[in-house]
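Slide 14.
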Amino acid sequence: METWETTDKIYAALDRFEDAIDGWQRPAAYGILRSDGCEIEPVRVNLNEHYLPAVILATVCGHSSGTKSYDFDDVMLDRAIELLAPAGACPDFDHPNLAALRRVREHGSPSDLIGVVFVDDLDVVPADDYIRHTIGAALDGRCENPDGTTTLWRPTGPQELALVEQSGWRAWPPRLADQPIFYPVLNENYAVRIAREWNVPASGSGFVTKFHIDTPYARTLPTQRAGGNNERELWVPAERLTEFNEHIVGTIEVTHRFS
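Slide 15: predicted structure.
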């Protein structure tokens, strides 16, 4: 069996599949969903990421662009798994969509209804339940405001906060060499817990900050689950932090202080 064990081979495969679909447009979000006929469960939903599984699912469905949902039978599942399986040889990616497809195929009930959804506009008001669940899962836990901004919180210590103050409360400082990710969080309670339980023991005091970034940019950053249901973060690679700061709207404010 062919394998794509390097990132170069992964991206080459992505190019081949995308070039093969006339009018192909990468979705803003897409997902694999399962229903028992009563309730719909998002098995795996992706927001502006993992484009190889997206185009492989589209190849199997016959999708090229727009917001649409498709029924997915066992034959289509097997074909999608077959086409995506070579990517599993690359250790540089986690392959959550391949794992989701295999889980659905191996552990699903014969009566389950499987849907694959592609969304090009996250602001659409869908009549289709599968599309509605996909958009809801893609934006899970986000505080999107009517003014076009998204509210984020960041637990921090005194040293980082001093650098934020030096910026005029308008930017986060560059990451250190051992800090490849900058992670604001999606709810204040989670930020409070980190500030109390981690920042205070580590540096004597902890702070919770609140700020806003423009929503279209925020939607380019997938939600990451750090643990429980309310432990959601956005992960910003260190090399994108300058770009991230450019999308902050207004100033960064301190909402809680702990010592």
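Speaker note: The CA atoms of residues 163 and 173 lie 6 Å apart.
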